[in-house]
Amino acid sequence: MQKSKGEENMAEYANIIVDISHEKLDKTFQYRIPERLKPVLEVGMLVLIPFGKRNMQGYVIELTDRPEYEVDKIKEITGIAEKGVAIESQMIALAAWMRKNYGGTMNHALKTVLPVREKKKKLEQKTVRLALHPVEAKNQLAEYERKHSVARARLLEALLAEGELDQNVITQKLNVTSAVIRAMEEAGVVKIIREQKYRNPVEHLDQRGYDKILNDEQRQVVSEIIGDYDGGIRTTYLLKGVTGSGKTEVYMELISHVLGQGRQAIVLIPEIALTYQTVMRFYNRFGDRVSIMNSRLSPGERYDQCLRAKNGEIDIMIGPRSALFTPFPDLGLIIIDEEHETSYKSETVPKYHARETAIRRAEMAGASVVLGSATPSVDSYYKAQKGEYRLLELKHRVQEKPLPACEVIDLREELRQGNRSILSECLTEQMEDRLRRRQQTILFINRRGLAGFVSCRACGHVIKCPHCDVSLSQHDNGKMICHYCGYEEPSPKACPVCGSKYISGFKAGTQKIEQVVKQRFPQARVLRMDMDTTRSKEGHEQILSAFANQEADILIGTQMIVKGHDFPNVTLVGVLAADMSLHVSDFHGPERTFQLLTQAAGRAGRGELPGSVVIQTYTPEHYSILAAKQQDYEKFYEQEIEYRKMLHYPPVSNLLLILCASKEEQCAFDAAALLAAQIEGNEKCEREKILPIGPADAAIAKISDVYKKVLYVKAENYQILVDIKDGLEDFMRDDRRFSNVTVQFDFNPADGF
Ligand code: ADP
Ligand code: ZN
Ligand code: ZN
Q1: In order of start, what are the domains of the chain with their CATH numbers?
Q2: Which of 566, 241, 220, 563 is nearest to 373 (CA)?
Q3: In Å, how far are 389, 660, 684, 692, 737 from 732, measured between CA atoms?
Q4: Ligand 1 pocket check: which of 217, 279, 398 to mutate, most ligand atoms within 8 Å of Cβ?
Q5: By the 8 A CB rule, do 310 and 279 touch?
Q6: Which end of the chain is more exposed for a tag (fewer CB within 10 A), N or C?
Q7: Residue 585 — very low, low, confident or very high, per pLDDT cuts 50/70/90?
């Protein structure tokens, strides 16, 4: 994906920044590259430059042939600095690679990669202390519990045990917001003590020590990777291990080895799975050499964490996507857990994928990468099959707990039997049974699609685009539209296959399900978890811990509930409409469905009691549903990869999405059409028979009055897509026809764009 050295180095000019602090990143200065430096100069190098009357140092962030000032006013670089700060150089080079491979400006890329320095704000340490006598505090606790003030009760309970706690520990670990803490201060329950200090978010935890001995399977995996590592081999591993097979223990063993050699490690975990339990496991083993990064840290706190990493005060950083850019001076290992998660793809420019970027960073640092998942992404498994990654497997659950029994219910048959409810007979019976036995049930609706697909409730037929094989989306104007190519047709009055009139846009929300469940089981205690009930920061953890404490019998939710938590008393998982994620207007439908169903099934029977799973669907014969029922990844993969091959979808081919956004619909469309014409007229594209697809409306065609049009290009060779992007960027530069339009590139987009 990268240009070879020689090619890049013959540029005339270098763009340079003199200070890597956030405010000044925009300020680049251009210098001429003297002949003698042309063959050696690279992006990221620290160079000497004349600056006004002084001599200064600056980092090269771009090499270019395009002068930005009058040519004879551009000064020359004096030389390369003796010793550049290696890690900064590496991060700038990584930013350049990201810009190249994912589009956007160098400034976007630098802002993603380099930590934000805040100018004045000093770090303030806030300690929260109990202000009441313990007896009074216990009365207060009872009062909170009576009022169901769950967050307050949780904090008070923790303070009763600890006396005082760092405010950050409270907000991050206990998930109690600072607003709640302030309210409790005003009520005289707690006192906040403010000091200025520089701190670690995981201090104040109790380290319990480490006591596990790896089993044979785990040891086998660890010794393969360590064998390579000590033999000087650095590569990418795909660790495919069923849920509960002990992947996290494997990660920790590997980290321990790397740390033993004086190097550092980064662990990426999707934010939704970054729970207190996960952090504690690392903390128990590695103590305060561990730090975490998450979206709740302020930019200043993030900067602080980066400084500590750079200064060697910590060795392990755990966090979501952005933790990948922790400036460890001698990075030895990058772990990406749940590597199939779509949150590893950035939604903002540059739209990088953390997996590919991690592999690039590891190459630069001489580190290895371990990707872990129970349901690897089709992309990664394909690469493992081709030998690009090394496949390692954990096939057994640690405690040999059986996987739950799984039943698939045909909703078409239910309709034929006269049951028009969202709950099948079978599921209803099992729910009754669990209520009687005081065991818990999770009802899961995998809501992933943006607009409703159109399906027949009598025969399960789904209306698809004749050109792209993705579901058409229903629009209010009585039409159905393809979000890839723009094809449209009127919504049908009857099913084209069976003639039934039960054909319509598929809609079922969590709220509706809650109503139905409450009606059917008036005695049950029901919790609902979705975007509405988790809007507040603590909502998510609050609902999960209430359910874990068995304060409810039934939890209804979206994909949010399938991660991160263990509920030992859950013995039934019902998937209400597996089709929801199958027929999204995106080719990832079957993959997401298989992953979600497998992960949802993994929620049942994690405790002593065996579990069962009921999957309700209109398309029980679909391979992703059959494979999920059997928990058979290979079977799913074989069919899926055939489908991708047939339609030239990634990972077999590559896909570039070009998004044109404007307040004027016509401008957005014209821009997309201009770019399409540009691609059509490109000689290389013509030779390779590469054609643009579209323009079409984006899946959400208009967001807050901004219209979005999309254009696709498919090519087997990624580099061709990068060249197309470069060509279009050149074409658009200083062209007034694009002045009202924002154009973004997205390589191999994740779903839901
Ligand atoms: P995964 O990440 O594959 O889902 P975990 O690493 O979370 O699996 O392990 C599942 C459970 O088994 C955890 O509670 C973990 O502590 C436990 N476990 C894992 N490996 C061992 C081991 N070798 N000995 C004892 N318990 C283990
Ligand atoms: Zn189409
Ligand atoms: Zn039909």
Answers
A1: 5-113 (3.40.1440.60), 124-196 (no CATH), 216-399 (3.40.50.300), 401-450+507-643 (3.40.50.300), 654-747 (3.30.70.600)
A2: 241
A3: 37, 12, 19, 17, 8
A4: 398
A5: no
A6: N
A7: low
pLDDT digits (tens, 9 = 90+) for 300-320: 778 888 888 988 999 999 999
Tell me the backbone φ, ψ of residue 544, rounded to 5 degrees.
-65, -40
- Closest ligand 1 atom, residue 242 Cα: 3
Task: Give, rounded to a whole angstrom, the gap between the first and last alpha carbons of the chain.
Answer: 24
Judge whether residue 53 has pLDDT over 90.
no
Largest CA distance in the chain: 88
Atom of ligand 1 nearest to the CA of 398: 12
Kindly list the strands in the beta sheet with 654-662, ordered across the sheet, starting from the edge strand earlier in the chain: 692-703, 706-715, 654-662, 742-747
Question: How many whole angstroms from 622 Cα to the centroid of ligand 3?
Answer: 16
Q: Which residue has the tokens 């239910």?
A: 414
CA distance 532 to 97: 39
- How many CB atoms are located within 10 Å of the residue 104 CB? 20
Ligand nearest to the CA of 250: 1
Whether 557 is in the pocket of ligand 1, judged by its Cβ within 6 Å, is no
Of the candidates 229, 252, 548, 259, the one whose C-alpha atom is nearest the C-alpha of residue 372 is 252
Q: Tens digits of per-residue pLDDT, 396-452?
A: 888 777 778 899 999 889 888 888 888 999 999 999 999 999 999 999 886 644 446
- Residue 321 CA to ligand 1 center (angstroms) comes to 24
Which residue owns the Cα nearest ligand 1 atom 5? 246
The tokens of 329 are what? 């001076």
| Residue 506 confidence (pLDDT) | 65
For the Cβ of 599 lying below 6 angstroms from any atom of ligand 1, the answer is: no
Establish whether residue 243 lines the binding site of ligand 1, counting it when its CB lies within 6 angstroms of any ligand atom.
yes
Can you tell me the distance from the alpha carbon of 301 to that of 199, in angstroms, rounded to the nearest whole number?
Answer: 9
Task: Please enumerate in sequence order all residues whose Cβ is within 8 A of that of 355, keeping only pairs 6 or more positions apart, or say none.
Answer: 336, 339, 344, 371, 379, 380
Q: In whole angstroms, give the CA distance from residue 388 to residue 410.
A: 40
Contacts of 642-651 with C-beta under 8 Å, sequence gap 24+, read: 643/590, 644/378, 644/587, 647/468, 647/469, 647/587, 648/714, 648/716, 649/587, 649/714, 650/379, 650/748, 651/378, 651/379, 651/382, 651/383, 651/748
Q: Residue 7 above 60 pLDDT?
A: no
pLDDT (mean) for 690-711: 83
Quick check: CB of 214 below 6 Å from ligand 1? yes
Alpha-carbon distance of 105 to 9, in angstroms, equals 20
- Tokens 């770090």 locate to 123
CA-337 nearest atom, ligand 1: 2
pLDDT digits (tens, 9 = 90+) for 457-483: 888 888 888 877 778 877 767 788 887
Least confident of 188-197, 225-234, 335-344, 703-712: 188-197
DSSP 324-350: GG---TTEEEEEEETTT-GGGB-SSSS
Q: Any idea which residue has 């090619």 for tokens?
A: 7
Strands 236-241 and 390-394: parallel
What pLDDT score was predicted for residue 515?
A: 87
Which atom of ligand 1 is nearest the CA belonging to 281?
16
Asked whether 372 lines ligand 1 (CB < 6 A), one says no
* Close Cβ partners of 584 (under 8 Å, ≥ 6 residues apart): 448, 449, 450, 453, 470, 471, 592, 751, 752
Is 248 near ligand 1, meaning CB less than 6 Å away?
A: yes
